Amino acid sequence: MWPDIIRKAKEGGLNIIQTYVFWNLHEPNQGEWNFEGNRDLVKFIKCIWEQGLWVTLRIGPYIEAEWNMGGFPYWLREVPDIIFRSDNEAFKYHMQKYAEKVINMMKKEKLFADQGGPIVMMQIENEYNNVQLAYRERGISYVKWAANMALSLYNGVPWIMCKQKDAPPTVISTCNGRQCADTFAGPNGPDKPSLWTENWTAQYRVFGDTPSQRAAEDISFAVARFFTRNGTLNNYYMYYGGSNFGRTSSSSFVTTRYYDEAPLDEYGLRREPKFGHLRDLHRALKLSKKPLLRGTPKVERISQDLEITTYEKPSENLCVAFLTNNDTREAKTIHFRGKDYYLPSKSVSILPDCKTVVYNTAAIVAQHSSRNFVVPQQAKFSKWEMFKETIPTINDLKDRTPAPKELYSFTKDVSDYAWYSTSIKIDARDLPMRPDVRPGLHIASLGHALLAFVNGEYIGFEHGSNVEKSHIFRKPVNLTAGDNDITLLAMTVGFPNSGAYMEKRFAGPRAVTLEGLMSGTLDITNNNWGQQVGVNGEKVPVYTEEGAKTVKWVPFAGTPSPVTWYKTYFDAPEGNNPVALRMMSMAKGMVWVNGQSIGRYWVSYNSPLGRPTQEEYHIPRAFLKPKSNLLVVFEETGGNPEKIDILVVNRDTICSVITEYHPPSVNSWERKGNELRALVNPVREAELTCPDNKVIKKVEFVGFGEVDGACGAFKPGKCNSNSKAIKLVESLCLGKNECKVPFERERLVDVGKDACPDVSKTLAIQIACS
């Protein structure tokens, strides 16, 4: 997928790719390095370079990123006397060893810019100011050491520290956030450029969240303002987020889908208009680059909300102007050099020659799109089979301790799961005598979730949340006179990724009691427990072709059951569109395709909107064979696999929304020498292009006048005169890959038939590609 994603990023107007380096991917076991396959860092950087883009390499080693352990490998947690991210000898030793490994690889391959390669900047540490106070003087000395260590390893390109106000003078402090033009005080010195290393294009989601949104207009406004304030670099976090395959997402309950609201969505498809509107912004800035680089800046405050920023060099006839309206509610008109310019609310207009508006942040000329999940014609599932995990008792679990072991240190990040079991003898006189009264099982857990079984019977499931990992399990149980087996399946949803003292976090059951007995509450926390890391199906492993042959599968009987494996086969869907599973009939668990984990699913955890945060789960085409793909699901609490849907994903619903105040497309101009000139006669028009060389098969909506809704869900407004407009759109667009519809009243509505001639018009078009 890498070349296609990078190509699209370049098409979006980017000229630099920023990436983390994930220590726990590359050194999962101490001294065992892995830079193969998807971990091939050198190949990834060369893929970027092959397409003519630069690289910022953020080696961390702490990266946060909603990634397991913030990028640290688990084994680091068990180094004696270690304190992460502190002036601690054990931590500094391993951090420097890791940094040397990565930097030496880059040097060997001549990938640094001063060697002729693409890497123009490096990052050490990450947002350390967020936790620095917790480490007191050791935090201050650690920051200085980290900067000096980094420069001692390589000083041919600049080093940066994100959100580090007191960064040492040898590195550059940068901004992360949504509005760095207004929140960033500037770098740590007058000799340093103003860098925005993370412009959050939305927000990552956690299970239980509502959808994350950030409008393309808001992002472009923030970027344009940043460049009016001497901005040098704007980097989008994320431009493409992708999927947290396997068990890589962190204990913030982060979803498998990551930053789906980015300009390129989880599947690598262009999310319009965010992709196109930012592409047009980048072109407008590139048209302005000569005056931006050579001109002298000047800021003129017209009023509380209106501002004019120019970069000008009269001797070379270079001038760019940014006209800003900071009023979030009302449009304004600004008078500049003998001419009036209309500015929508909260917007910036860019004039690369101080005369011609080529772009306004609030006026989206780029097309819109709506994502579709479609059932393919082929790729049907074969019959589902199942294999149930055996619910162990203490006699089956050889690892014994008086109380349940702490979950993080027990699993060591090799599995989400750990079994705990104990046996307790109950006297008949201790059991309630009334049939409507039952004892209760009470478990206080530090997180993140657990299932409970009593005498092999499934009792229930409880979980924490992103905000509060700890939770209480409290359910009625059926106990019998004699021995009773209490078995728990505790689980993590990743390891911590942020905060101070990450090496000192804990999870798992901490107290277990039986309530409602005739003799009172019985504390069984120290009753002697047996334990096991992982479920048996993982150890085989049953999600591979060879492993699946080692257990006995039986046909799915239609009744959901907990801790159960399901398998089936399917052929790859037709075409090249991305593939996904809709898991709405299941609850919580993990999925593998041909032995590759596509991550955790959790559809039983609803957001306040009454639906799960993530319903579909991405299967990369690279994981698939043409025929007989093995799909294995491990369901923790119970679901019906027969209702899982396999889908293909497209953005074949394309729209355009243009008003009378929109400027022509920024592609109408070019800079020739020091002069801005029109490539074509600039006209206001709706532009529609089908992706992947598809053609327009249907015009689904045309509105001219007032229009409500959004792409994929338009509705005519009160004043809508569209009969002539529909015919025009159909004549210009049907059967073509792309088309342009001019915004001309006389061509869109007949004279005398305009329902509201005095109303400002909007032209909205929705087409379907095939």
Automatic annotation (TrEMBL):
InterPro entries: BetaGal_gal-bd, Galactose-bd-like_sf, GH, GHD, Gly_Hdrlase_35_cat, Glyco_hydro_35_CS, Glycoside_Hdrlase_35, Lectin_gal-bd_dom. Belongs to the glycosyl hydrolase 35 family. Pfam families: BetaGal_gal-bd, GHD, Glyco_hydro_35, SUEL_Lectin. CDD domains: Gal_Rha_Lectin_BGal. Keywords: Apoplast, Glycoprotein, Glycosidase, Hydrolase, Secreted, Signal. This is Beta-galactosidase. It is found in: Secreted, Extracellular space, Apoplast. Residues 686-770 form the SUEL-type lectin domain. The keyword Signal applies. It comes from Sesamum indicum (Oriental sesame). GO terms for molecular function: beta-galactosidase activity; carbohydrate binding.
